[in-house]
Amino acid sequence: MNKENSILIYDLESATKGSRPDGNKDDFRLFGCYSFKTRKYHFLTKPRQIKQIIMDHKFLVGFNNKDYDNKLLYRMPAVADTDATCKQDFFDKSIY
Predict the structure, then answer these.
(1) What is the pLDDT of residues 71-84, one digit of tens each?
(2) For the purposes of burial, counting CB atoms within 10 Å of the CB of 78, is it exposed (0-12), middle (13-18) or buried (19 or more)?
(3) Whose CA is closest to 32, among 67, 56, 8?
(4) d(CA 68, CA 56)
(5) How many domains does the chain have?
(6) CA 68 – CA 54 distance, rounded (Å)
(7) Domain that holds residue 57
(8) Whether the Cβ atoms of residue 10 and residue 33 lie closer than 8 Å to each other
């Protein structure tokens, strides 16, 4: 797999609970991404599908993902029920 095929560009949509966005409190609504591997856009709501598409890519690209989107993802059951090593690998993939 070449480098380009390893890239996933993603963004999360959420419902803000307070007056300001907070990845530790807001409600997840939608995971939108573009995969260079499949050359397709994906719009997902199921945590296990989201985890799988992330794990299928080596590089994750987004805007403010480390400070917001990844916090929302970390709270999802499909991510939360994995071991610490997998969680670390999952979030270490993010590049900006």
Answers:
(1) 888 888 776 665 44
(2) middle
(3) 8
(4) 22
(5) 1
(6) 16
(7) 4-95
(8) yes
Q: Which helix (H) or strand (E) holds 29?
A: strand 27-35
Closest to 54 (Cα-Cα) out of 75, 39, 70:
70
C-alpha–C-alpha distance, residues 80 and 96, integer Å: 23
Q: Which two tokens stand for residue 39?
A: 């050359």
Q: Which amino acid is at 37?
A: K
Copy the structure tokens of residue 71: 């916090």
CATH number of the domain bearing residue 41 = 3.30.420.10
Tokens 């797999």, located at residue: 1
8-64 pLDDT, tens digit per residue, is: 999 999 999 889 999 889 999 999 999 999 999 999 999 889 888 988 888 888 888
In terms of Cα–Cα distance, which of 40, 33, 71, 72 is closest to 55? 33
